Structure formats: C-alpha cells, structure tokens
C-alpha cells in the first residue's frame, strides 16, 4: 500500500513538473517528465493525451494518432478523447477513422459542440450537403452566444450559421421558382398564411407565438395584426383623431401628469428595460391605469374619453382596462418584449408621427400613419422606435380579444376579482 501511494505521489509530482514546463514552452523538458510518468504507469491517460497534443502541434500525425488511440483503448469514456482521435485521423486524411471516432464521441454526448462541428465539416467534405445542414443546424442550436464561446470555436460556429443561411437561401430561391405557377393558379386567393409558413421553413421569417407573461387563454387566434375590418367601432375613434390630438396638445402644454412608462424599484430585475426604467424618454399620460379611471387626467380630455367608451375595453379589476397617451422621445428605441395576457389585445391610434418611426410585431413591421388605427396581439414579441428628432405620440388602449364569448369575458372578470379577494384575505391573515 505504501509503495502504491509513493508511486502515485511521484507520478503526480512528475505530471505537475511536465505541465509547468510545457506552459513555459520548455517542451523537451516536459517530454522528459512525461516519459518518466509512462515508465511508472504506461496507461496514464492524461500523459498519453498530452503527448498526443504535442505530437499534433509538431505535425507528427502518426505519433499523435497512436497516443490518442491508446487513450480510447484504455478509457474512451470522455467525448474529448474521441475528438482528439478524430482530429488526428482528419489530419491523416483517414475519413473512416475520423467518422468512427466522431460517432463514438456523439454516442457519449449527442449535444457535444466540438463533435457536432467535426461531423458537419466531415459531411460537407464528403459532399453530403443535406445531411451537413442538419448537423450545422444542431451546432447553431447547441452553441452558446458568441461572447460566451471559446475564441477558438467562434469561427466554426459562425461558419455553421453561414452554411445554414446559404442553404436556406438556395432552397428558398429554388422553391420560389417551383411554387410560382402554383401561386398563379390561385391568384386572388388569400395565401398569406401559407407564404408565412414557407418563409419560416426557409429561414426568411421566424416563428413568433403568443408568450403571455401572466395569464394565457388557450386556443385563441394568435396573429400579429388583426384585420382592421373586424373592428368597425374604430371608425368613430379614427374620425375623432383631430379632437383627440388637440386635447393631448393642451395637456402637453401644461406638462403635468406624465410619468415614465416603465417604473421599477431599484431592487427589481428590469432585464431589457434597464435603459428606459424611470426614464422620461418613454412616458405616458394615463387615462385608465390598472383597471381604474385616472379621474384627474380623464377630466382633461372629455372627447377622448367619450370616444373610448365605444371600445370593448376589458374588465379585469386591478389590471385592465388600460388607456394612455404614449410618448416616445427622439432617438429612442423600445426593446423587444411581450405582453401580460392574450385575452386582451392592444389598439394604437397614431396622433403625432414624425419620419423614421416604426413598429414590429413578430415578422411584420409597419409605419404608423396619423389617424389610422390598428389592433395587435402584444403577447407576440414586438418593439418600437423613434429615430427622428421629434416627439412621437400614440393613443394606446386595450380591448377584449374578439373571439372571447360574453360568458368567457364574464368568467375572466370573475376570476380576476377572485384572485384579488384571495390576495386580500391572505394579507389580512398575515397581519
């Protein structure tokens, strides 16, 4: 037992000396220490791996392969061991050996990034382009963001993204030509949904789903912008745009009642909104807030409130309805985000819209036009920007999702009130 312990200590000491010598660039000295380790333990895996790496660096490919082969014969339980063997085989142009080693590495860990990179590269070299794109796609899925990647892997991962993009572009161009006569056959038909589905397949668009952050109602239609014709009650509100704008301008002159749109306490995580938290660059003049009428503000714009009364605003005590004048100052961008619940939709009535303003919901990007309202699902990823040097102003208010029945709306209202009652009762018990 004592001899075994002494031997292990000696090996550890020699290995330590070898590592320090190698790090200092004294490779001949490191090699002497590693040779002494192998004399004590011919199957010392770390030493054999180190010798294989050194052989690769000096382009002694046969020695490298021999060392790595011994490692996997002795152990072979770690993907990196098979990756090393695959690299040596690739350098020797032994595709069969390379492929076998990569397969063993991925059998141990199918999500191992370097192994996937090697398999994709091999398939591409073999001309198996369709198989290669599948593995390159796996690389882009598994890889962490570039800033968290090891510098030596960034070029390979960037190549994976580029390969996938090139493949998708080629596929899209081919399919556009292939489908063109079919589109002509159905000219005049509404094929927007099909076109979106195809664009998602070939990577021209992303898939965006409803991602309600608080309350999600199943099986409701999920669409970025709803058809304007489905909301005939908007006609009266659009017709009142000038009166609404005039009431806002009077409020703006008074410079009272405006608050930051985003306002979190200093100890709360604000994520993408950190730059705009408690900032006047994105502010609001609330008419309804958290389900309650802001009487002082509403009194200043009676015509606006009269017109809003014609909208099917939701009723969730403590949450909705919500309505406000939203102000976005020059050179300000609202980052991508999602809303709290898909049981209500959001309406924009543009009032003051300078150039270089835009709005994206999912895959659709639009420009506001004063007096032209739209309704969108804010639980789909969306963002807005004002790159002009002037103020942008919109009247924003929420409405019930039109596909909810009267009974469903009543139950949502009751559920919200019940949750509020539960919280109040719990707080009273705690007190």
Report the C-alpha radius of gyration, rounded: 32 Å
Structural class: alpha+beta
- Helical stretch tally: 15
User: What percent of residues are in strands?
Assistant: 5-15%
Unreliable runs? none
| Principal-axis shape | elongated
Please name the CATH topology of the largest domain.
Jelly Rolls
Gist of the model:
With 431 residues, the chain is α+β, with helices and mostly antiparallel strands.
Q: Which properties best describe this structure?
A:
2 domains, four-stranded antiparallel sheet, Serine Threonine Protein Phosphatase 5, Tetratricopeptide repeat, alpha+beta, elongated, Jelly Rolls, 431 residues, seven-stranded antiparallel sheet
Task: Give an account of the 3D structure.
The protein has 15 helices and eleven strands. Strands 1, 2, 3, 4, 6, 9 and 11 form a seven-stranded antiparallel sheet that branches. It has a four-stranded antiparallel sheet with strand order 5-10-7-8, with no helix packed on it. α3 runs antiparallel to α4 (61-74) and α6 (95-108) packs antiparallel against α7. The protein has 431 residues and is an alpha+beta fold. The termini are far apart.
């Amino acid at each position: 037992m004592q001899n075994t312990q002494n031997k292990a200590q000696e090996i550890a000491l020699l290995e330590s000396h070898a590592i320090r010598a190698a790090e200092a660039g004294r490779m001949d000295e490191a090699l002497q220490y590693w040779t002494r380790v192998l004399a004590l333990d011919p199957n010392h895996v770390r030493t054999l791996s180190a010798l294989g790496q050194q052989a690769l660096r000096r382009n002694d490919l046969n020695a490298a392969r021999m060392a790595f082969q011994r490692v996997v014969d002795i152990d072979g339980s770690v993907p990196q061991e098979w990756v090393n063997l695959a690299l040596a085989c690739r350098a020797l142009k032994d595709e069969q050996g390379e492929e076998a080693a990569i397969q063993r590495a991925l059998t141990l860990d199918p999500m191992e990034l370097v192994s996937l990179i090697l398999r994709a590269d091999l398939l591409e070299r073999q001309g198996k382009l369709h198989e290669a794109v599948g593995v390159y796609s796996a690389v882009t899925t598994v890889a962490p963001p570039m800033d968290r990647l090891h510098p030596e892997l960034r070029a390979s991962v960037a190549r994976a993204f580029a390969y996938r993009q090139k493949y998708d572009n080629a596929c899209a161009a081919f399919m556009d030509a292939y489908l063109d006569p079919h589109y002509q056959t159905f000219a005049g038909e509404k094929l927007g949904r099909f076109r979106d589905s195809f664009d998602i397949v070939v990577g021209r668009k992303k898939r965006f789903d409803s991602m309600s952050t608080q309350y999600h109602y199943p099986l409701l239609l999920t669409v970025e912008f709803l058809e304007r014709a489905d909301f005939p009650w908007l006609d009266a509100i659009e017709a009142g745009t000038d009166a609404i704008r005039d009431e806002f301008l009077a409020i703006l002159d008074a410079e009272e009642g405006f608050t930051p749109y985003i306002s979190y306490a200093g100890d709360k995580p604000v994520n993408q909104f950190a730059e705009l938290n408690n900032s006047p660059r994105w502010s609001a003049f609330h008419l309804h807030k958290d389900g309650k009428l802001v009487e002082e503000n509403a009194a200043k714009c009676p015509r606006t409130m009269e017109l809003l009364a014609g909208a099917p605003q939701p009723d969730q005590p403590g949450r909705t309805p919500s309505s406000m004048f939203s102000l976005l100052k020059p050179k300000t961008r609202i980052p991508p985000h999602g809303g709290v619940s898909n049981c209500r939709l959001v309406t924009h009535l543009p009032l003051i819209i300078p150039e270089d303003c835009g709005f994206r919901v999912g895959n659709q990007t639009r420009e506001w036009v004063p007096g032209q309202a739209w309704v969108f699902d804010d639980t789909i990823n969306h963002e807005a920007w004002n790159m002009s040097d002037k103020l942008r102003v919109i009247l924003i208010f929420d409405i019930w999702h039109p596909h909810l029945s009267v009974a469903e709306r009543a139950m949502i209202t009751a559920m919200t009130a019940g949750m509020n009652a539960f919280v109040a009762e719990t707080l009273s018990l705690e007190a």
